[in-house]
Amino acid sequence: MTIVGTRMVREDKTARQLFEEVMANPARKKFGFGEKLAIVNIDLQNAYTRIDEFKTAYETDPRQIEYVNTLSRLARAKNMPVVWTHVAYADDASDAGVWGTRTNTEDSLQNIKHGSRRAALDDRCEVLPGDAVYTKRMPSPFFETPLQSLLVWHKVDTVVLTGGSTSGCIRAAAVDSLSRGYRTIVPIECCADKHESYHYANLTDLQLKYADVEPVQAVIDWLEAR
C-alpha cells in the first residue's frame, strides 16, 4: 500500500526541541504584519502573575511584563489601541458556566471574584487612561466582550497577543483572532505557562497553524519603524 499521508510520529524529543526545530525551519510563509495593530494583553492579573502570592500564578520569562509594557507604550505612541483583559466572576459564580464546575476551592477559577486581589491587574502593568480594560469570563478575549467592535472601529488588521496562559487563553485568542480575519502575532517572551511542555507545544502549534510566533524584538522593530 502506498502511503501519501503521515502516520502519527512518535519520538523522544521534548516540546522545546520540537519548537526550536520548527522555528529554525519554517514550513510556511508568515502571515506578516498589516497596516495597523492592536496589543491585546490577556489576564496579566495577580492570580496568574504574582508567584509570590498565589498558587495559580506562573512565570516563564521574568521580563514578561516589562516587554508587554514596552509594546503597549510603543503602540500608544503610534495611535494603535492597547487592550487589557482579566477574568472575574459574580459571587455565586453563575457567570462562570460549566467552566467553573470542575473544582471548588479558594484557588479555583470561578472564585476569582470582582474587586478581589486575584482579579486585579498586576500593578507592574502600565495601564493608562485610554487603554481598553475588559472583564472576560471564558478563555478567548473575543467571547462576549467589546473587543471585536473596538478592532473594527480602529480599522485594525493585526492582533498582537500577550499574557497567559500560552496553552489556554493565548491559544483560544489566537484561534478566534485568525477566524475573524486578523493577522495574529504571538511574541515569545510575552506569554507564559505553568510548564515548558505546555508552553512550547502550544507555541509550536500556533506557529504551524494560527499565528506568527515571533521574538518580541520583531514587534518592537515594526512599531518603531512606523
Topology diagram in text:
Elements: H1 15-24, E1 37-42, H2 46-49, H3 64-77, E2 82-87, E3 132-136, H4 147-153, E4 158-164, H5 166-179, E5 183-187, E6 191-192, H6 196-210, E7 212-214, H7 216-225
Parallel strand pairs: 1-2, 1-4, 2-3, 4-5, 4-6, 5-7
Question: What string, H for helix and E for strand, traces the elements in order?
Answer: HEHHEEHEHEEHEH
The low-confidence parts are none
Distance between the termini: 55 Å
What's the shape? globular
* Class by SSE composition: alpha/beta
Helix content: 25-40%
Radius of gyration: 18 Å
Which percent range describes the beta-strand content?
A: 15-25%
Number of discrete helical segments: 7
Number of strands: 7
> Sheet with the most strands?
7 strands, parallel
> What's the mean pLDDT score?
97
What does this structure look like?
The chain has 226 residues and is an alpha/beta fold. Helix content is 33%, strand content 15%. The protein has seven helices and seven strands, in the order αβααββαβαββαβα. It has helices at 15-24, 46-49, 64-77, 147-153, 166-179, 196-210, 216-225, and strands spanning 37-42, 82-87, 132-136, 158-164, 183-187, 191-192, 212-214. Strands 1, 2, 3, 4, 5, 6 and 7 form a seven-stranded parallel beta sheet that branches.
